[in-house]
Each structure stands twice: as C-alpha cells, then as structure tokens.
Design a protein that fits this description.
Elements: H1 2-22, H2 28-50, H3 55-78, H4 87-113
C-alpha cells in the first residue's frame, strides 16, 4: 500500500507540474497550490499508514482524507491566481488544519480504545 501511495503521489505531482508548465490557462500560482495540496495529502496518508491506529480508523481516515484532498484540489483549481484576499486559499488552509486535528483526535481516541 505504501509503495502504491508513493508512486501515485509522484505520478500525480509530475502530471500537475507538466500541465502547469504547458497550459497557459493553468496559472503557476494554482499549480503551486495544487503541488502543496498533493504533497500535504500524501504526507498525511503516509503518516496514517505508519500510525498505530486500528484498521477501522485507518480505512475511515483514508477515505475521509482522500475525499478532502479531492475537494482541496478542486478548490485550488478554481482559485483566482492571487494570494491576497483569496478565500479559496483560506478554505484550503482550514481543511488542511481540520485534517491534522482530526488525525490527532483519532490518535487519542485510538489509544483510549486499546
């Protein structure tokens, strides 16, 4: 599972980089946001694989994190190519923080269940 995640992350990151460099309609700002989202989501999924969660937590969190990563990718794609006053970026940051907090809470709950 870990090698599949690594290969998939690298392929998606490479495709994103190539599309950002080739397509004029895809601004470099959005490409950068998408790259950060891809790497952050992959790091969380890797951390989830190495964490000592029960299998139910791992499966549920994997689906939730993957779904939220897709939501973040869509938000990053439709985001205006500026940083200041960009509410899409604010929502992306809030979702990223939510995922980190959710994983920490799941870690506490998983330890209490054992």
């Amino acid at each position: 599972m870990k090698s599949i995640l690594l290969v998939t992350t690298l392929v998606v990151l490479l495709i994103n980089l190539l599309l950002g460099l080739v397509l004029q309609i895809y601004p470099l700002f959005n490409m950068g946001i998408e790259c950060v989202i891809i790497v952050y989501s992959a790091l969380l999924l890797f951390a989830l694989q190495y964490a000592h969660f029960d299998i139910a937590f791992r499966i549920a969190l994997s689906f939730i994190f993957a779904f939220l990563a897709v939501v973040n990718l869509v938000l990053g794609l439709v985001s205006p190519p500026k940083f200041e006053g960009n509410y899409y970026v604010v929502v992306i940051i809030l979702i990223a923080a939510f995922k980190a907090v959710f994983m920490a809470v799941a870690n506490v709950i998983s330890k209490k269940v054992r």
